[in-house]
Amino acid sequence: MFEVTVEDTFAAGHALRGYHGKCENLHGHNYRVRLALRGPQLDAIGLLLDFKDMKQILGEVAERLDHHHLNDLAPFDVLNPSAENIAKYFYDEMARRLAELKPGHSVRVASVTVWETDTTTATYTGE
Ligand SMILES: [Zn+2]
């Protein structure tokens, strides 16, 4: 299996509902997100998927969240905007966009990792 990754960043505010502590209050993070794709087959020039394509689909979703209060944006108006839920949101969006971009391609989303701070991450793998 081959695995390739790209990263992007966005800045956003959030407030964790039901959290008893400082994170219940509105505050912001400089988020980093890493998309990992996995697949058995390379194309004719030796790529699993062009990094340019990966950066584009990741950037589209990061751009949607950038400089927003996440609690105001679906699905985080209902779902708590924790790093875990943000990782799953990116995972689902990446899977959908990848299927549109490369229908029938054997490449799959392996994982999405979200950094909320330099030392804290959440990863969703879909398994
Ligand atoms: Zn926070």
Please give the order of strands in the largest beta sheet.
Answer: 1-2-3-4
From the N-terminal CA to the C-terminal CA, the straight-line distance is 17 Å
Structure ligands: zinc ion
Helical coverage, percent range:
25-40%
Order of helices and strands: EEHHEE
Q: Overall pLDDT, averaged?
A: 96
- Sheet-strand content, in percent, reads 25-35%
Q: Per the principal axes of the C-alpha atoms, what is the gross shape? A: elongated
Low-confidence stretches: none
Give an overview in words.
The structure is a single chain. The protein has 127 residues and is of the alpha+beta class. The chain contains 2 helices and 4 strands. It has helices at residues 51-65, 83-101, and strands at 2-14, 27-39, 108-117, 120-124. The chain has a 4-stranded antiparallel β-sheet, with helices on one face. Strand 3 and strand 4 (120-124) form a beta hairpin. The protein is elongated and about 50 Å long. The model has no long low-confidence stretch (mean pLDDT 96).
Short structural description:
The protein has 2 helices and 4 strands. With 127 residues, it is of the alpha+beta class.
Q: What key phrases describe this protein's structure?
A:
four-stranded antiparallel sheet; binds zinc ion; alpha+beta; 4 strands; 32% strand; 127 residues
How are the elements arranged and paired?
Blueprint (H helix, E strand, L loop, with lengths): L1 E13 L12 E13 L11 H15 L17 H19 L6 E10 L2 E5 L3
Antiparallel strand pairs: 1-2, 2-3, 3-4
Helix pairs in contact: 1-2
The chain binds zinc ion.
